[in-house]
Amino acid sequence: MSVKPDEIGRLLLEQLNQYDDRQQLEEIGTVAQIGDGIARIYGLENCMSGELLTFEGGDMGMALNLEEDNVGCVLFSSGEKVMEGSIVKRTGKTTEVKVGGALLGRVVNPLAVPLDGGPPIVSDKFRSVEAVSSGVTQRQPVNVPLQTGLLCIDSMVPIGRGQRQLIIGDRQTGKTAIAIDAIINQKDKDVVCIYVAIGQKASVVASIVNTLTRHDAMKHTIVVCATSSDSAPLQYLAPYAACAMAEEFMYADHRDVLIVYDDLSKHAVAYRTMSLLLKRPPGREAYPGDVFYLHSRLLERAARLSDDLGGGSITALPIIETLAGDISAYIPTNVISITDGQIFLESELFFSGFRPAVNVGLSVSRVGGSAQTKAMKKVAASLRIDLAQYRELQVFAQFGSDLDASTRDRLTHGARLMDTLKQSQYAPMTMEDQVVTLFCAKEKFLMDIPFYDVARFNKGLLTFIKEKYPEITGDIRESKDMTSETEGRLRECIEIYARDFKVSGR
Amino acid sequence: MLESVSYAEALFEAASESQCLDETAKELQSVGAVLERRMSAFRNPGKTSRDHKRFFSETLDGKVNRITLRFLFLLADHRKLPLLPDIVRRYEGLVRKASGERWVRLSAAIELNEPILTEMKAYLIRRGLIEKETSHDQIFFESVLDRGLLGGFRAEYEGRMLDESLKTRLRAMRLESMRF
To answer: Is A177 helix (H, G, I), strand (E, B) or coil?
Structure first.
């Protein structure tokens, strides 16, 4: 950005001339107590809940507790300059954050201050971090798919634009990897992505940013970062600020947004810290009474707007970390009940090499089914049942060695399906590739392929189709359906490929 | 600070009911001055509230009014005697307000003389920070010398502030220029 010195001089002169007109009486209070990032302020009788307050020395804070004789305020900075007796001014506005296209490709903190070493964010648009979610009449049903590029998710737990889909699992089960894959898959699809890191290590965030940059996904992504070394108020604010940024794209630009909250367990912990310091009464597990509302009001802001309002959407992927697979803990059950479905990841699957480690039995998408393409619906319809039967048979098969042919077939088919659903990280698949791969597995073309060659077979098949029969995937992509004619051609094509496929001599 | 306000307001209510506002103020001022000199004794955790109360009974009984003495006993019971100077200051503010005195805290980078203060009064009324004086109330200034303001002034009155100091102007300009 080039700035002309004479232009700055002119603007400053204008401001100087108009300065007296802008002088206003300010309502002030004094700091009665300060500590642990919380200030108790005497005065400020007309202060609003959530109002932004400024302290002498330039520190900022947000009024959260309006009590009879004082205001409880959380500070966004270390507050080293704030002392007892310091003057606090009202700003008359609730906490706002800079929004707009200038944030794309940037790593910022929840106050939109750049953390990537780049220039300051230039934008004259601001939005309140707390906003009322869209009403019933302003919305339309979720019926447009948001492809994650992950076969097991797009086929069995599909996500629609405007949906809230929880990603839940123990630590080190690949929760963030799923979210990052989904962001990478939005490249060139006109979907803005926002990744919110709450209470994570700065090194982890740095590696995520590197990954996104490496896959050319940063240009459509904003990373909002409140690391574990940031104050609890900043961590608390991060998802709301990110949601305000997303709302600008949805309401003003009518665009689709994918927002990942990584993770809401740490967000709840930050809120608990803040609430206890504000002396709010503790409830179960010392969380305050409104911890459900904390997440429900955030996730309710995800929506798909009606066509009258431009039809933009916010799809939310909140992440929750469980302890020892316990999904019946306080925060997980809260968020499960708020969201429109969950993707449950299991350590056991992860370490057995099935990645993404999605437990398809416990994972569900309540509204995404109507967002699936016809082609996908056709090939994925029986997938869940087949896998459920396979898991059931697998348990019984462990007790006996003599199995009839039909049971053996079912077990082999199930095992091939499981192998088909395995997918490498950062390798999202297009919808048509997913349809072809699933069709091949569903129609039992993999029965004679050894398990160690399934991935090679699938990969080779897709390359073969792209080179020799591109019209098949083209048809699926265009019509989003699989006609009987396409099906016939695909069947022939797979037969040709399977005939020439050489099993590796392992 | 918050506790001082609550104690001062309670004392003000009790004293105004007994119609001894000024008397209580004077008595507490002198007691407060003595306490400030002997504060270490009152902070001594070895001394119980009974010791403090005995001290007050022996030294003040019959010399101060009933409300003052009972108020000191209450502070001793609650172990809040170190707050007394702050409570007295706030209580005086309430008494002044009740008697129609309006005090404006005026900070400036230079000493303000009488003619300037008179002009300031008119200016602050014009700007709406304070209302015109009536037969019931009068405006007084508490002048504070604050060279950090660089120039201009800052006036505070009943939770509102008019900040026309050079320091604030420069800071606002700096923030504005950061937007370019």
So the answer is: helix
